[in-house]
Design a protein that fits this description.
By secondary structure, the protein is α/β, with parallel strands linked by helices. The protein has 18 helices and 8 strands. The strands form 2 sheets. Strands 3, 4, 5, 6, 7 and 8 form a 6-stranded mixed beta sheet that branches.
Amino acid sequence: MTLREPELARQLEECQEALRQSRRENELLRQKLDRLIRRMFGSSSERLDRAQLELLLQLSESPDITAQEVPLPEVGSSRRSCRQRTLRLPENLPVVEEVIDPPLVKQKPEAWRCIGQEVSEQLDYEPARFLRRRTIRRKYVHRINLDHAPLIAPLPERLLDRSLPAPGLLAQILVGKYCDHLPLYRQEQIFAQRHRVHLPRQTLARWVGLAADWLKPIYEHIRTGVMAGGYVQVDETPIDYLEPGHGKTKQGYLWTGNRPGGDVFYHWQTSRAAACLDNIVPAHFSGIVQCDGYAAYRAFANGRGNAIELAGCWAHVRRKFYEALEQSPRTSGWLVRQIQHLYRIEANLRDHRAGPRLRQALRASQSRPIVERIQHVLVRLKSSGRYLPQSLLGGAIDYALGQWPTLEVYLDDGRVELDNNLVENAIRPTAIGKKNWLFIGDADAGQRSAIIYTVIENCRRRGLDPFAYLREVLTRLPNMTNWQIPEITPQAWAKVQRPLQRLAS
């Protein structure tokens, strides 16, 4: 044995260790790249059918501790009956009739007798139109008492003295931008090219601000109602805004508060810090806040002492194991299947319209054993050390165990949902909108957008026509007091409209 052999052996071992480390890093980077590609170009659905899960569980992966699965009781199917086929044309549409007679009948109608008719229908459309709403106030003088001052009716209250836009135009502009996602510059082009009405976008922006100021009392009433129930779901989404004087954009956030089965509101902040939640959740709030695993929520809850309890989101846990299916089909597939059982139980409860007490009872008997089984498996997977924390499955395990106390909250409170999907669904309209208008004009305009989004989203939840609602509300607001605001919220307006719609039908 030469003197160089120990040195060469040590160098060989170091090279082999470096090679193993490089392979591990390459594998982790490949997993991250695959996840990024799937997020950008793949399907966003995380649904797996039973046959697909069975296939994953039968793949030739080395046996692990998840192989021993306790059979689960079958949960009632959540499949809803097929919707009945609707009519081709809605019956509530106005009818324009056109009678067509043969040329011979037109020449000598007295020689022919009608014995029947054949009717065919088409669905037609007439585009919207501008009109000049002229208010004429006549002046009168007394015929006998000439000393009496002339009389004239007072001008109806308006949103702004000598304002040009009527409530219908304001409602159309708001619905166009915040419901149909048309930026103001596109609306400017539509008005000019199709209607020959030239309205600069700066003017449209001022009118949007005017409408938001008038709708603010309704917004505050909705926000107070959402936070009054003791349970709220919270999430945030980034939106760029224009920084004055620099021509550049900065990132702000539209925070969303949702009450399942109730209203939703939005609040604008220029950051994502935990301190922003102090402006969203009132100081007197005491109850449950359901959120994702973002650290700001935990810091906020710790700052409020024992007044706030955080509830976790099982959808985020499922998503992470779903992304790790390719890396570890057997283990991740088993965990996804267990979480799928939890969702089947919740779907069954929704089908039977279960209340909070019944939901809590069934969760204790059906969901809790599944949750405990998942926790037992996750703890053993973590202690086995088989999966690196940087890997997709390792990261999913760490995330689930780190959020575990919040994931069990829904078992003890029937009001709490299984996940945070309802508030994420409420964010979607804003996500679609920002793809069109790209950024908000300035930081102050962010809160105005939050006010209008709040009103329109609550109209959508109740099946209301946002244009009809906004036109009615903007007409009535100048003659109302703050005490009358509860009468014109989307919730109150929907209660009035339902009986009218039943009478009309």
